[in-house]
Every structure is written in structure tokens, then in C-alpha cells.
Amino acid sequence: MQEGRLSAEREVSRLTEENNAREARIQAMIADFESMKNELLGSNAEKDQYIDNLNKEIAGLNSKLNQQKESLQASTFTYGFEKERMQEAIQVRDKTIQSLEAQLKELESEQSKQSTVLSERNIRIGVLNNQMEALEAEKLRGEAQREQLLKQIQNLKQDFEALNQQLMEKDKSIARLQNNVNLLKKELGEN
User: Fold this and answer.
1) Nearest-angstrom CA–CA distance, 161 and 57
2) Residue 80 banded pLDDT, cuts 50, 70, 90
């Protein structure tokens, strides 16, 4: 009986340690996920800022280009005798426009690459979210197992109390029988 009780206590101890180890692993995985998620959010914010800066630069370049076109038209109307010189200036402006368009294409290409990177990161975030859901499900399973273990422990405690009560009753019976034996011995000794 003593050996059965010790075995039950060892099993309860082992199950408790196993449950604690699982919970620690789950907590570590959740912490890793939160760290990775924060890193991805920070990186996405930097990319968004970079894209905003590029858009502002494009807007500035477009504004500058429009101003140059307006200035060119005003000069053409006002200074007809400088037509030839202005045509040369137009060629320079056209080259500038071509250069700006080339830059714009490069920026659009870069923006496309950034969009691809963001899409890939969104996919990774989706995968991480799925992993987090799986971890939450695992955690819930672990909690359910923990509840079952607690119920088993409670049952073992009740069984132990019942066995302890039986043991006390048997000790009382032994003491009663021992007293009866002693009385009988005394009676036999007197006879």
C-alpha cells in the first residue's frame, strides 16, 4: 500500500513537471513570435517611410518640372527674338525631363520591389499568425490536460484519504484486538 502511494506521488510529480515544461516551451514560442512580429512591423514602417519620401520627391520633381514648363512658355511668348536660344534651353529641359522620367521609372521599379517585399512579409506574417493560432490551440490542449491532471490528483487525494481512513480503522481494530488478547492472557494467567 505504501509502495502504491509512493508510485502515485511520483507519477503526479512527473506529470506536473511535464506540464510545466510544456507551458514554458509555449511561453518561449509566444515570446519569439512577438519579437519577430515587432521586428517585421518596424521594418514595414521603415519601408513605408521610404516610399513616402520617394513619392514626395517625385511630387517635388513634377512640381519643379511644371514650373520650368510654365517659365519656358512665358519666355517664348515674351522674348520672341530669343527663340533660338530658347530652343536650345528646351532641348536641355527635354533632356532633364528624360532624366527625370528615367529616375521616375527607377523609382517605380524600386516601389514595385518594395511592394513585393511587403507582400512577402505579409505572407510571413500570415504564416506566423497561423503558427500563433496553432500555439494557442496547443496551449488550450495543455490547459485541458492540466485540468485532467488536477482532477486525477484530486481523485488520488480522495483515494489516499479513504485509504488513510481505512488504515486508521484497522489500527483501531488491531488495538482493540490487542486489548482483548491481553485481557484473555490475564484471565488465562489467573486460571
Assistant:
1) 80
2) low
